[in-house]
Amino acid sequence: MAQIKKVLIANRGEIAVRIIRTLKEMNIPSVLIYHAEDSFSQGAREADESIEIFGETPVAAYIDPQNIINACHKSGANAVHPGYGFLSENSAFVSQLEEEEIIFIGPTAKIIKLMGDKISARSFMIKHQFPIVPSVVEEDDPASFAERARKIGVPLLIKAAAGGGGKGMRIVRDPAELDSQIEQARSEGQRYFGDGRLFCERYIERPRHIEVQILADQQGNCLHLWERECSIQRRFQKVIEEAPSPTLSDTQRSEICQTAVQMAQKAGYSNAGTVEFILAQDGSFYFLEMNTRLQVEHPVTEFITGIDLVAEQIRVANGEALAKTQAEIQINGHAIECRINAEDPDQNFMPSLGPILKLRAAQGAGIRFDTGLREGQKVGSAFDPMLGKLITHGSNRDQARRRALRALRETVLMGLTTNINFLQRILELDAFIEGDLHTHFLEEFSAQLEPNEIDEETLKLLLAAAASMDPQQQSGGAEIPEPYASIGSWRN
Ligand code: ADP
Question: What is the CATH number of the domain that holds 263?
């Protein structure tokens, strides 16, 4: 007898749609909360029920626990899926749900609290002798913080205890700048997270970001679903992710995956989670943080393992034991995810706003396009600029990469500027093809990632050629310059 009868999704955008789809497949009714800014979204259209929420700002509406609890009472939803971001790692919210006897589709409040704070997570890993980067914590002795940090030696990375999304982190290469950088990191921590607590660690040069997907039930079983490589980053934020990592040896892979399982087991973890590691050039790896929720990049893992992570999260939250053994979770082929953002890479990634005039996803084998957008919807500045994710799967890495290139070329997203062309340029770089990745990859190849200039005359010719080659394109809406779609590989 299933406990979960109706699920409220405390999120928006592509992840809300993604969760609704699995709920439909499981015959579980869905309820979506939405702010007026999202009333026209795909999620609001696909959910069985939708309930409007209010707040001082659109984001404030989504992070107000009372809005979620009221919506559960109103709709009769007895479980909440938090998606990622917003309230997904807020332990106080999870405790509130527990009091209301509403099931949280995720781990316990206690684990979220332990892992949500980078300092307590770090202490936990040290206590259990897991590998972490040499580091010092300010609150252990505030007066000697800078001095203790200097002893580690530059380069250093100052981090905010409550940090996330790459915010509140500062690299220090010159010891003379340490004091001023500490102050800047503190004020950034205060501004973004309302928490100025800091710690400082050795900055690893040219590292790779490797993370392991974990799945654990309430009976104490814990499995890994292999790793993801997320080294293609901009300002510490992921841009392209893939699974498996292109260059880990089998020994490294099994060592890092087993370490992640041991960490999760020690913490008494349940539900889906991700252990993030930094992998140094010499092959050593260190714990970065544990994310106690579904990650943006989870679809690459779903592609290579064939496992629906949201369905597993729901089963575990229902008290069911994991159905598979570790030996049954095999890697099948390779998957790559590209994050499509409303931004202009050629104008220093300035956010781009506007209506979605035309939206057409690429199709074919091994292609998945996750978005919460609909044609006619306006993209404003209220939320994150991520518009959607294009995920491709192939029998090997090169097939997944070529498929991603084709799919990006065929994706039509008109009305605002996106990074689609920039993503194509990354996938075409020799170093990317060779899998020679590190977290400063985009900086290192910035010159090669510049767009190719097309002069006006060539552009006119291309437009004319595209228009005459495909007469059916002419029958679309009159206000949309369709020929642009046919030459989508140049600009979107
Ligand atoms: P956040 O929670 O803000 O995402 P993380 O600790 O997960 O912060 O780190 C984000 C990224 O910052 C990593 O993927 C990596 O690129 C970089 N990073 C973090 N710690 C280090 C380190 N000690 N040395 C080098 N790079 C690091």
Answer: 3.30.470.20
Please answer whether residues 304 and 333 qualify as being in contact, where contact means their C-beta atoms are separated by less than 8 angstroms: yes
Together in a domain, 86 and 150? no
pLDDT at 481: 40
In which domain, by residue range, is 14 found? Answer: 7-105
Portion of the chain with pLDDT greater than 90, in percent: 88
Establish whether residue 172 lines the binding site of ligand 1, counting it when its CB lies within 6 angstroms of any ligand atom.
no
In the reported structure, the alpha carbon of residue 239 is separated from the centroid of ligand 1 by a whole-number distance in angstroms of 14
* Mean of pLDDT values over 216-241: 97
Pocket test for ligand 1, best of 118, 133, 169, 234 (most atoms within 8 A of CB): 169
d(CA 324, CA 322): 6
* Final residue belonging to a domain, choices 444, 466, 485: 444
Q: How far apart are CA 66 and CA 62, in angstroms?
A: 10
Measured CA angle at 129 (ends 141, 88), to 5 deg: 75
Token representation of residue 355: 């209506």
Check whether residue 371 and residue 350 sit in a common domain: yes
Number of domains in the chain: 3
Q: Is the CB of 203 under 6 A from ligand 1?
A: yes
79: domain CATH number is: 3.40.50.20
Average pLDDT score over residue span 62-72: 98
pLDDT tens, residue by residue, 106-146: 999 999 999 999 999 999 999 999 999 999 999 999 999 99
Q: Output the average pLDDT for the chain.
A: 93
Ligand 1 contacts CB of residue 269 (under 6 A): no
Whether residue 120 lies inside any domain: the answer is no
What percentage of the chain exceeds 70 in pLDDT?
Answer: 93
Domain match, 164 and 212 both: no
**Global confidence as pTM:** 0.92
Residues 373 and 314 in one domain: yes
- 45 and 187 fall within a common domain: no
Tell me what pLDDT residue 1 has: 40
What contacts 458, CB < 8 A, 6 or more positions away?
A: none
- Is residue 183 located within the same domain as residue 214? no
As a dihedral over the C-alpha atoms of residue 425, residue 426, residue 427, residue 432, rounded to 10 degrees, the angle is 140
Domain-embedded: residue 454: no
Give dist(CA 88, CA 94) in Å, integer.
9
Tens of pLDDT along 302-356? 999 999 999 999 999 999 999 999 999 999 999 999 999 999 999 999 999 999 9
